[in-house]
Design brief:
The protein is of the alpha/beta class. It has one domain: Type I PLP-dependent aspartate aminotransferase-like (Major domain) (Aspartate Aminotransferase, domain 2, 3-Layer(aba) Sandwich), CATH 3.40.640.10. The chain contains six helices and seven strands, in the order αβαβαβββββααα.
């Protein structure tokens, strides 16, 4: 099994969402982190009702952020062009011009145990985010044969996870997803770590 399997999974996900490109990652949180790093985001929004790794990622990257009371459904914006779409499964659902971050965690509609992706607009975005996800290297060539010119973060999807995604994709396409909203999450403002740090 090779990284060509990952590229096949990326093409299949991009086609389903009607996105030009998809970069597969090891999880949605890391997809969001890569998007924030790639766009050099200095500030971000965070619904008070979401998963706790989102504000923790902002803290990790030293991004200026605050909670808001956004009553979101399906997805929400983190910045003007980065979207947390972890719970969003919708054919043709890509929002043009965005970095739309997906999750394939075990509770999600396409349940792979762990995994994520970034839907993006341009080939340049795809290439650079792909390198960032994979230690600065390009797939399918030994790293010792590459003159690596950018920092990467070891956030890539494995071929085994991608194959599982391909195996389960048709079933996910034919079945109805759960509809998620802000009401599925606790208020993060009540959690001690965020009380202490805000």
């Amino acid at each position: 099994m090779s990284f060509e399997t990952v590229e096949q999974f990326e093409r299949s996900i991009a086609e389903y969402y009607n996105a030009p490109y998809a970069v597969a990652t090891d999880c949605c949180t890391h997809a969001i982190e890569l998007s924030l790093r790639y766009t050099a985001a200095k500030s971000a929004y965070c619904p008070s009702y979401t998963y706790l790794s989102i504000p923790m990622t902002f803290e990790k990257l030293n991004i200026d952020w605050s909670f808001n009371t956004c009553e979101w459904k399906d997805f929400y914006n983190i910045t003007s062009n980065i979207i947390d779409a972890a719970v969003y499964w919708h054919k043709g659902g890509y929002k043009s011009g965005s970095f739309m971050c997906l999750s394939f965690q075990y509770k999600k509609h396409l349940s792979l145990g762990r995994g994520g992706a970034i839907l993006c607009e341009s080939l340049e975005d795809y290439i650079e985010l792909k390198k960032m996800s994979y230690d600065g290297r390009v797939p399918n060539t030994p790293w010792t044969e590459q003159d690596i010119d950018s920092i990467g973060y070891h956030y890539y999807m494995t071929p085994e996870t991608a194959q599982l995604g391909l195996d389960r994709l048709d079933h996910a396409k034919m079945s109805n997803p759960r509809k998620w909203t802000w009401e599925d999450y606790p208020d993060l403002r009540s959690i001690a770590v965020f009380k202490k740090n805000r």
